[in-house]
Amino acid sequence: MQKVLRKRVLRDLKNNLFRYIALAFLIIMGMYVIVSLIGAGYTIIDNGETHDEANKIEDGQFSVFVPLSDDEISQLEDAGAEVEGMFYEDYEVMDGKTLRVFANRENIDLVECDEGNLAEADDEIVVEKRFSQVNDISVGDIIQIAGNEFKVTGIGTSPDYNALFKEMSDTVVDSKVFGTVFVTEGAYDKLNATGESVKTETYLYAFRLEGKTTCDDVKDALEDIKVDTDSIDDEYFQEYWDRTGAAINDFKDGIKDLKSGANELADGLGELTDNNRKLNNAAQELFDAYLEQASSSLSAYGLDTELTEDNYNDEMTKIADSQGGIVAMSVKSAMSDIDSIKVFKDGIKEYTDGAAEAKDGSDELADGVAELKKETDSFLKDYDTDLANITSFVTSDDNPRTGGAADDQQINVQAGYFFGVLLMLLFTYVISVFVVHGIEKESSVIGALYALGVKRRDLMMHYLTLPVIVTTVAGIIGFLIGISNVGIPVQMADAYAYYSIPAMDVKIPPILIVYGIVMTPLAAIVVNYFVIRKKLSQTALSLIKNEVKQPKGSNVDLGDMGFVGRFRVRQMLREMRTGLTIVIGMFIALICLMLSLNTATFCSKVKKQNVEDTHYEYMYTYKYPTENPPEGGEAAYAKTLKKEVYGYNWDVTVLGLSKNTKYFDVDLKDGKNRVAISSSFAEKYGYGVGDEIVLHDEENDIDYGFTVDSVTQYTPAFYVFMTIDDARELFGAGSDEYNVVFSDKDLEVDPARLYATTTKADIESAAGIFADQMRSMVIMIVIISTLIFVVVMYLMMKVMIDRSAFSISLIKVFGFKTKEIRKLYLDGNFFIIAIGAAICLPLAKLIMSAVYPSLVSNVNCGVKLTFAPWLWAVLYGGILVLYFIINRVLVGRLNKIVPAEVLKNRE
Fold it and tell me: Taking the model in full, what pTM does it have?
């Protein structure tokens, strides 16, 4: 029996060749995209890990004020880290481009050459791969740097610059204007001696962890390494330190001097008060002796009286009044002398009393200053005011330059699986519709075979054979194309065109083989088994009679509706399964299309808004600011904090601005916790007005909480805005301190003072890179989603016609014309498409807008993904246009149905 049934399989394939070709094309196309996308992702992820490990990728890096000594490096090695210097300088070359020059590495972040070999002589150089491609540099070319000529001996990559961000805060990679090169140690020293680098040499070190050591352990060890500020050979640092950090030392020295002075004062007053008693006794003795002498003199005149300190004034006054002449004058003179001596004695007493009080006060002062010094020393010890040598510390996980390609591909792999599942569901559902239609079409034959004793198992095997063969062959073809030179390598081209990664051999993981070859037929078997089983569960008689069970609702009361409308509604209800397939196919196609349009919207808005939102011409980020900002510039204070989203720990800059700033459209309110945030930050993290946000200061391990007061339009970066005074106070900066300057002209700031200079021209140059990179993917997805929609709608509408062949043949017998038949059987689908599109368009947009942020989680930018009204109109109109085109094509199928068809299906 199977031999007979197999002949029917070939006949069915021949009779429905176009249908199965279209279905196979759909599967091949979908499988090609999914396999190539996932395969490219696994190739870059797995091979990237292999190359990174072979080239000894760093676990982290840090920079310092002055190079570490051998003892300090040994200290880090004892902490469990292998350390290697990666010093570099930036040089301007080729009319405005920047090359970052490194010496050859020995143990960490090794350079891998795709072409040529490493530099061995002092006039040789290795150029980073992407910069060489974009700027048409090849092995054997000559490059001039700072007046020195170098011959290119190699084109290669290094794992620490997988994504070639000039600054870690950059949003996009621009290999047209920035790249890295590697020379010998001697050549590096020679370039360094020219003094022509655009900024001072950066003392960067990379490290690899050993054993159970963590990055935190290395950072703790680094913070224990202090630097003598006098050893930093940078005039701008010394100038800046004298105004800022040196004040701490001056404060400590001042407290120390104050304590010494207080002690000296206390000691001096102590010595002085030691003779207070002797001084008072001597004064008293002098006074008493003078009284005694006065009493003796009076006795000589016959005036016997005993003078004391208490009565001398009264007694001598009486004597002077009672006597006259010379006696009275002598008495008054003596009394005057005694008064003078008393004043002297009292003065001595007041002096010694004051000295004693001063001594007590000086003791208290000395004690107070000693306590002040103790508390000050304790406070400064807690805050470790000695200058640590470390200036920056970044782990490999938080470094946007490392592993960027793998992160990007990981998102592509997840997206590939997501759409792979959707397409698999669509394929199997379409196939099930075909199978059901085939069973219904051959119902009488199946009934006859049942009557002749053919078992259901044989029929199930028969009706599963063709779908499984078609899906298997199509799946294998799609898989083979996906892993061919036009598959995975093509998908990898976007990564090669953006990231600096070595050449990689295609890698096909086992799971992809299972998905590409096994999953498609397996899904077809599982789904169609249950569908076929249900359709074959009818009795032989009902199958012979071709009894078709009417779907629920097909007999709904339609009231006084006209004949044409009534017929269309009942036809749609009868073909609900097929109509639902069309809507599902449209929905999946629109999901894919929304991915493409969201990407296009994201890229176009970034390109446009990055330029529109940038109102400055120059932004200078200072390493060593001058005492006053340069004339013509607007000072700001910036502090970089961290905030994690979607597994990425991005920099968020708290920017203190003047209230009347002309470079940002922001309304600043007083208050250290009420802030405005940039629209990019708000969109990426989902924040709005009134929300509470917490940002982390990794350097000091402090969390800062803010309330969003407003959201201002600014796309290029994640900013939190507040007044400059509030920012200074919040982060403990001086009242006139700044570290960023905005300007509408070149202020000609010495590069040695700066971390970076950002110009509007740089932003304009980089703004279109996203759009250029994603253009091919956007076009490909638009084409694929359109094809999915067209093929599914064509096949399903054709199935509708084939299922209604008997009815169409019958009404042709009654004289209905093709135009009238189209109105009854085809035009009713317009409402399915129109209503389905009206529902699926916003639903697909809603779903994709919710999913899309995770697909661009590795991009530090956020924009509103809203569509312009005209785009919604174009999308809706495009769907209807495609429907009308397919409708017109299917009219030819109506013409092929002849009245004789009704005779073939009579009982």
Answer: 0.73
